[in-house]
Amino acid sequence: MKMAAQAEFKVDRAAMSEKYWSIWNDEVQAKIDADIERNRKADATFEVAAPDGAEVKVEQIGHAFRFGAHIFNYDQLGRDEWNAAYKASYGEGGIFNQATVAFYWNRYEPVPGRLRAGGDYEDTARFWNSLSREEAMEHPFWRRPAAGPVIDFLKASDVAIHGHILIWGSAKPDWIYDWYCPEGEKRKFDELGIPRHSSKNVPATGNWSGGYNIFWRNCWNKAYDRASERELAEMAPTFTKEMRRLFRKRVFDVASAFGDVVDSWDVVNESSKDWTRYRKSRTELPVWKSVYGLMPGDYPLHALLDAKEAFPAKANLAINDYNICPDFLAQVKDLDDEGAKIDIVGCQMHLFNTNDCMRLALGETGISWISTPADIRGRLDMMAKTGRPLHVSEVTITSPGADDRSRMIQAVLTRNIYRAWFSHPKTMGITWWNTVDGGGVKGEPLVSGLFTTDLKHKPAYDALDDLINREWKTKTTAKAAGGKVSFRGFKGRYRLSWKDTEGKDRSKFVEVK
Hints:
Layout: H1 18-23, H2 26-40, E1 41-47, E2 55-63, E3 66-70, H3 80-87, E4 98-102, H4 105-108, H5 125-129, H6 133-138, H7 147-156, E5 160-167, H8 175-180, H9 183-191, H10 209-224, H11 229-235, H12 237-258, E6 264-269, H13 272-278, E7 287-290, E8 293-296, H14 299-310, E9 316-321, H15 326-337, E10 344-350, H16 354-361, H17 373-384, E11 390-396, H18 404-423, E12 427-432, H19 459-471, E13 475-479, E14 484-490, E15 492-499, E16 505-512
Parallel strand pairs: 3-4, 3-12, 4-5, 5-6, 6-9, 9-10, 10-11, 11-12
Antiparallel strand pairs: 1-14, 2-13, 2-15, 7-8, 15-16
């Protein structure tokens, strides 16, 4: 299913306050346009077997820039027609040329050795069609489809694939502690107030990890007050070694199964606060008192070094975080100094609070790092000091509500923020997070999608479609001269078409870089 062409998106300026437009004024917009022209386009000359003066049709058919979205709702939306509309947003006719695929450890390997590549009934649309949305959101595999079928679809659709995530404390499986911490060592942790993984001890929170994680973090924070890192490691020497072994095995298991078919990976996620606490691997501590509970010492560095060893050289490795501040920048620099392979830096931007989007529409500032064009430029300039391309890796921009004005506010915010991100010379991609209203996990906003719950386009979808498939896509004609044709266009893949001296149709594919 391919989506029909959409009407040109029209900004309704009345949805926003005059104060908002004073921030995103005509001078600012002209500067963004100039930066896009300078940073996203290139002059190109190609040989063509066309007579002098022949008209050459220049048609861009693909972007070098990565316009992405996660594909966590693959075949899980409850109806075949909704699944089809969802899939049609990826690849030709859609707006996404990259998809982020779920590789969360606790769902990819729900029990030791069971790697969910695909093929089970719970991986089929038929299974998910049998559930209500409420039932689906309670299932442990909601938004965690098996990677195999998703990757097959993306390969067939010529969509770049980004894997997320290899090592993240919030996705660490419970079975690491249950299976690999010996009973004698568990008893010592019992004395520190660390409960066993049991329905009697752990609060029921459904699929949402927030309450569960808060519970465990509180338990560990109390334990941290009673024992140092070295004392914790001495209390559980077997568990300490097993954690490090299993974390390394995790990276190699995924690399063995999907290393050759996935283009890029978030190797470590949201680790800058842990890293800042310990500041580089010189601490040589066997365990860290992490915000995620006990973690192997220097786990961000080890994850990246393991990935460097396990994955093919062509795979782009990334570190990803929401903490877009000097601490994150310092972490990247430290890891670089330690020999980590970091090809891309992932910068998250979530506006989970719907009130924040209304506040932005009213012209308020100081909200996340996207309140003003200067805020956006400043943060990206800071992260560009890493010397790596920047991936705006997880984007949430909500509608303040479900009414027409709220949806237009979301669309205007989206259009302006995307334009500012796209204009920066170091940005290589932007990835929207939950594309369907109500398609996230419990606790996330229900109105942050580009689609309604019944998979109709919201204005924000049309705003992106207008940018990606019209404003930022080159279609023109040029005259051949001396067996060559020259033009200026957005970077990406092109089809050149012309008639030769005998009037026959000719074409060739080229890349503008």
